[in-house]
Structures are given as structure tokens and as C-alpha cells.
Amino acid sequence: MSAYDATNPKRRVNRTWTVRLGNSDTDDLPSLSKLRQMSRDASRNQPVVVSALETKLDNTIGFGLSLQSMPNHEILGISAEEASAWSRRTEFEWSLWSQSVDCDAERTKIFDEIQQVAFLSAMVSGDVPFMLPYLDRGGPYSMAVRLLESDRLCNPHFAADTPTIAGGVEVGRYGEPVAYHFAATHPGGIRPATKWVRIPAYGANGRRNVWLLARRTRPEQRRGVPILAPVLESLKILDEYTTAELEAALVSGLFTVFVKTDAGELPDPLGGTEEGSDAAQEGALALKPGMMVGLAPGEEIQTADPGRPNANYDKFVSAILRQVGAALGVPYEMLMKHFSSSYSASRAALLEAWKGFKSRRRWFAAGFCQPIYEEWLAEAVLTGRIEAPGFFDDPLIRKAWCGAQWNGPAPGQLDPLKETNAAVRRVEEGFSTRQREAAELNGSDFETNAAAAKRENQLIEEAGLKMIDNSKARSAR
Hints:
By secondary structure, this protein is of the alpha+beta class. Among the domains are: 25-48 and 61-69 and 96-231, no CATH class; 243-313, no CATH class; 412-477, no CATH class. It contains 16 helices and eleven strands. It has a four-stranded antiparallel sheet, with no helix packed on it. A three-stranded antiparallel sheet has the order 3-2-8. It has a two-stranded antiparallel ribbon with strand order 1-11. Strand 5 (169-171) and strand 6 form a beta hairpin. Helix 2 (24-45) packs across helix 3 and helix 7 (232-253) runs antiparallel to helix 9 (313-328). The chain starts with 11 loop residues before the first helix and ends with a helix.
């Protein structure tokens, strides 16, 4: 007897539900390579997958998360004004590095584009390893970001997984990464891998050598799993079903006339199968719109009505896509870019989706953007381009200087007036701040907005134009 129906072996549905006990290595790693290949194929050829990935990218990262330096002036013992001035200088210095292709080891992308590639690779492949080597290219900074294909992180010579080395990750006593094993070339590249390189997780000076951006869902998990893994089978079946429906609709749209004659051939100029054509040589006919085919005596044609277009196609596909969207954290309306629900329903869908987008953004910022920023800031302080007293003396002081927030795209507004008024009310009641509301409404920075507004008001006053009366606007609300 079982206390749970799901484990009762006498129930018919459970007889074919075979499961086994395993950890993340034994459950995920044997299927990981195949999952990556299937996910990449789906991301290239299935429109729904392209829409899902682009929607998550556009709302989570956009063109790239922007840095907002936020040092802790209380810990540092400086004034808020000094911290603000330091932040502005640091952000401008950051743009000198991040907006140049020299920040990319491949020298083809600026940092915003590197973020996009890293995010999509983590979604499709499950994880993305990256390193921060120093490459002297004659610029003010030497540090660069090097992204690697997840396939290159694998056991040397494709050896079987062991408790120590599995999925290319070598761990220590507590499961902490000790070293990473990379194939010198991509296993599926032009020149298949024949050599492997072991890179320690940390250097002799304690600096980290390799990062692995992955969203882990289990303890002791070494590698990430593609986000499409739970829905790949459904998406593939749906893709084949859609192709079959398209072909059936095409056949249904062909109007072919069969003419029965004594000779079995159509007289010119009605024509028929052209002599020397592939169909004539193979003794086969290919249906074409408006085609006429001759039949010999005793021959007849039997046709089957395909009944296309299928009246139930849209309902069935929508039902499957709602499940796919739920699994991927993308509501059906956003997945299909089809907004036909009421204001309340659409807003509820957007708000629910944005919980996931914000969660992914924080994960990406913490695992990718922030480590890179901290390593860059260390180089900037070492080279004297930025002054940060005590940066290398105390970990607490270093953490205080490295404080930052990463801003991305703002959620869409179904009713801008209502949502702006709500933001104003939250600020007035002390439930939020202008800085937070500016980031939430349009992804902007309040200090930048305030400085720009000050300059604009000065220009308006100098030009003798009429100023906006904010008191009347508030009373109208």
C-alpha cells in the first residue's frame, strides 16, 4: 500500500512510469549534449522558440544592462555628494571600456552585445563559461571578456564521468569547483578536439580564472540545463503537425482536372505531362494548380477530401502553446504577440511575466555583470585611473566601492497615465523612491533626469517660455 496515489504501483497510469534515483550528474549529464543540439536546432528553425527567446532577451536584458554605480558612502566615510561625484566619474570611465570592442577577447562586440550572447547561450545551451584575461591592445585597459561554447567544457578525451570530474568540472571535497577542463577546439568544429586544457578555478594570487554562468536548481549541480528541455518534445511534435497542416492545405488548394480519353493522352494545346520531364520519366504525376491530366479507358481517379483548412487547428495549437509559455515563463499573449484580452487580464499577464524577467535579470547581473565590473574596477584602481582608498586593504571597503545596480528594460505600460499617477502616489506616500520609479517606468536614472530637467528649465526661463505648473497637474489627479 502507498500513502500517495502517485507511487501506488496498482494504478494503471503508474505501471509505465519508470523512474530512478540519481543526483544531478547522473540525471542531467548523460542527456546534456543531445539537449543542447536539439535546443539549438529549435532556436534556429521553430518560430515559437525564436519568439520565446527573443521575448525573454528583450525584456530581461534588452540591448544590455546599464551600470549605475552605488558605493556605500557610510561604510567609506565620505559624503553622499562625494559618492555621487565618484559614481559619475566611474560610470563614464566604465563606458570607455564597455563601449569599445577591445573589451571583447574576440574583438567583435561591445559589452552590451556580449551580454546578449551570454544570456542567449545560457538559455539555449544551459550554461556559458567565461574568463577575463588581460590582453595588451594599447588601450587604457587590458581586461577582456572571453565567452566559450559550453560544449568545450567536457571531460578530457570524452572520458566517463567520475565523482571528481564530471561534465568537465573538477570539484573538491565540498563540491566546490577546483578546475575546469576545456577542449582546445570545439568538439564539433572544423578541427575536432584532440587536446584538452586544465584551468584551475583560482590562480595562485586568489583571482578567479573561470566563471560558469548557469541557473542551478539542485544541490551539487555542476552544469546548467537548457531552458527548452521540458518543452522540446511538445515543440517538435507541434512543428511537425503545423508542417502537415500546411501541406494538407496546399493540396486542398490545388484544382486538378482529369480528362478521360480513348488514347489516355490530352490533345495539344491542353498538354499534359511534358515529354522528358522528371514526372514523365518516373511515370509519376505531381499535382499543380489548374493542371489537366489524361486518363486511359478503364482508369479512374479516387480523391480524398483533406478538409483543410482545419477549423480546430488554432484552438489546438493555442492550447499547446499556453502550456509551453507557462513552462518558459512567457505568457501566451507575449509569446505570440497577440493581445486580445481585457485590460485587467493583459495587465495581470504582464505583471506575472515581469516577476520572471526581474528574477532572471538579477541572476544574470549577479553572475555575469557584477563579477566583470568588480574585476574591471580592480584594474582601474591598480592603474590609477580611479581613486578608491582602501580598495585592496579591506574586503569590506572593496565591497563598498563595488556597490552597483544594473538597470534594464522597463515593463510596458498598458495605460501610461494610470501607471504614472500610481508611481507619483507611491513616491508621495513613501512606499517607493523617484530613483526606483524612474527605473521601473522607463529604465532611466532619476539623477540624470533631474540634472537634465534643471538645464531644460533654465533654457525655458531664458527663452521666456511658459513653465509647466505641476501643482495644477497634481490637483487634477
